[in-house]
Design goal:
- It is a single chain.
- By secondary structure, the protein is of the alpha+beta class.
- It has one domain: Clam (outer membrane lipoprotein receptor (LolB), chain A).
- Helix content is 22%, strand content 45%.
- The chain has four helices and 13 strands.
- The protein has a 13-stranded antiparallel β-sheet, with helices on one face.
- The chain starts with a helix and ends in a 20-residue tail after the last strand.
- About 3% of the residues have low confidence.
């Protein structure tokens, strides 16, 4: 009986350690599947394809979209919650149709009329979605002070075996990520966000599929869907994704002399 008791105590201690260790193992395997060191060294990315927006589960908009992303150098030490990315979103076949810029905690809608600052709610949502994004976490946030990775369980999602991991940061942001047990790639992520109007909790679900090699063994999903409280709100089908294009700072900055409009 004493031997059995000691064995149970030992197994209990091993399980307590396994949650963090297995969580780290799942993330390490995901990084390897995404391209390993090549994925971690990606400097920029350009996605071009068809973007769909939905309202109350009905299609409300369709556009050709080009999303340019540039990762910024990581400071040492990492600062919790700091955004280390710049992004430019262009919609329409012609760049003159306009673009949306996110950089240095700022955001602007740029058109031929000038640059209009984005509402605080839009900036807050962009910041929240970026900090919860599993690809951004793997590329920019690992090693951040206070970041905790915990394996939850093995399960099935859409008839596929998955490993479920919770990632919590120093500000108590939690994202649950479902990794394909066979390919090791992220299949979906889930987090909750306080609705600024109703003050209820919104469920934010993103589904990743149709992974392809975008250069040097780096994998990226060509189909990304976002759902809020079970209703589809956005989807992008990429026709092409390219990495390390040497994107310049000027692409993510306001043109010199542009007219600044009221919010």
């Amino acid at each position: 009986m004493r031997a059995v008791f000691l064995l149970l105590v030992a197994l209990g201690g091993a399980f307590a350690q396994t949650s963090a260790q297995k969580g780290k193992q799942v993330l390490d395997e995901a990084i390897a599947a995404l391209g390993g060191d090549r994925f971690l060294r990606v400097q920029d990315r350009v996605e071009t394809g068809r973007a769909y927006s939905f309202y109350r589960a009905e299609l409300s908009g369709l556009s050709v979209a080009t999303i340019s992303t540039r990762y910024l150098p990581k400071p040492d030490p990492l600062q919790p919650g700091r955004l280390l990315v710049a992004e430019r979103e262009s919609f329409g076949k012609d760049e003159r149709d306009g673009a949306v810029l996110f950089f240095d905690g700022q955001g602007y809608e740029v058109t031929w009329r000038g640059a209009r600052p984005l509402p605080k709610e839009t900036l807050d949502r962009y910041r929240d979605s970026t900090l919860h994004n599993i690809f951004y976490i793997l590329r920019q946030r690992l090693g951040e002070p206070g970041l905790i990775v915990e394996w939850q369980r093995s399960d099935f999602v859409d008839n596929r075996p998955v490993e479920i991991v919770n990632i919590t940061d120093a500000d108590n942001r939690v994202v649950t990520v479902f990794f394909d047990r066979e390919t090791k790639l992220p299949l979906r992520q889930l987090y909750y966000r306080r609705n600024p109007v109703t003050h209820d909790r919104d469920e934010e679900l993103t589904i990743f599929s149709k992974y392809r090699d975008v250069g040097g063994g780096v994998q990226w999903p060509y189909d990304i869907q976002r759902l809020r409280n079970g209703d589809q709100v956005y989807q992008i089908y990429s026709d092409s994704v390219s990495i390390n294009q040497g994107l310049k700072d000027s692409l993510f900055r306001l043109p010199t002399g542009i007219k600044l409009l009221k919010q």
